Amino acid sequence: MKALIKKDKLQHYLATLKFALYCITHPLDGFWDLTHEKRGSYAAANTILIITLIMRLVKLRYTSFIIQAVYWEEINMVLYMASVLFPLALFVIGNWALTTLFDGKGRLGQVYMATCYCFTPYPLLQLPLTIMSNFVTVDEAEFYSVISGLSLVWCAILIIAAMGQIHEYSAGKNILFMVASLFAMLVMVFILMLFFSMISQGIAYFISLGRELLFRL
Length: 217
Fold this sequence. Notes:
Blueprint: H1 2-25, H2 27-36, H3 42-62, H4 77-101, H5 108-117, H6 121-133, H7 141-167, H8 171-216
Helix pairs in contact: 1-2, 1-3, 2-7, 3-5, 3-6, 4-5, 4-8, 5-7, 6-7, 7-8
């Protein structure tokens, strides 16, 4: 019985993971079914996100130096991974917070799931590009850059389509709230910077106060 349950869960996981390919080729129908018909899963979304992060590391390590010169001593891996995870968190929270106030139908988890599904084109295109980069010349590097940029544009278009389907917005309203979501991300970054600045100043004050007390004692 347990084996049967595990098999069903595995089949459901694989089906939801495979559904990402449908979403990126049929975004309107795909992202509607992803949430409204429950054809997506958080497990598949997390898998796509992890694959995307791994692909960024693979690209960093194996892309030809002709295309991308990497100075490893200058790279902080934590910050490198955070360059994906932090904007993702800001977008998901910002988009959900704004759309909730204006009749958006999507829940926080659905926004996260759909956004992760939108990352699918990145590893699909970047893997062959990374391999190809080791066989191109300097003159052909421009072709690599164009295709690499298209993978990001594809992801961005998918995110726009996904948010429209999840929140059931018209095209104009969806674009408006996508722009508003970007603005909300900037506001949250400003608030976080202000918060950590105040924390650091408070810590510095108490440290200086403690040193002064020790000096006087």
